[in-house]
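Shipment paperwork, digital attachment
Item: protein structure file
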Amino acid sequence: MLDFLLERKIFAFSLAGAAVVLLGFIAWRVYSLKQPSPGVERQPVLQFDYCGAELDELCLLSFGRDVNGNSIINLFVPDRDFPDFYLNISRFNGTSVYVCIKNEEMPTSVLCMGDVINLNERIEINIMSAEDYQLLAKGTFNLTAILISSQAGDFQTPRTGTPIPSSPTQTFTSGASEPPASTLVPTSSPSYPNYP
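Attachment content:
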């Protein structure tokens, strides 16, 4: 009976020792993964600002709002190999994460959507790599104007092209001397301001 208790204690201590060694290994592995490897040099953090006349580097095109009230940030990304990213927005009342999607029709345009940003609010935008969560670029902005979208949709930019008329268009046949009277739309005579 005494041997059975002794064997049980030895087994329990062995099991506890193995658990401590396993936890130590896991802690070391997690710590080593968070540290940058010595062979990999980190790229310097880019600074970005509003876009100018020349679109040749990472910049902010516009702030906007969708029909649901979410803020939209439109970024110009000149490098098609720029990694996928998300935005970490620091503001007076905390931080927000914005999800970013590349525009399929224009790959240099990236749209990011998240919590509402108010006019005259000062924010710091941190562009974070979606793969390794490293800071890629940052910029500080004062929101002075926003574009409010009237389109409900799936987070896409409006397509450009010929607008579709709101009423059906009647065709004019070349054999007639003038188009049918029903298609004629009278226009008012020009008006000019009357100054005293």
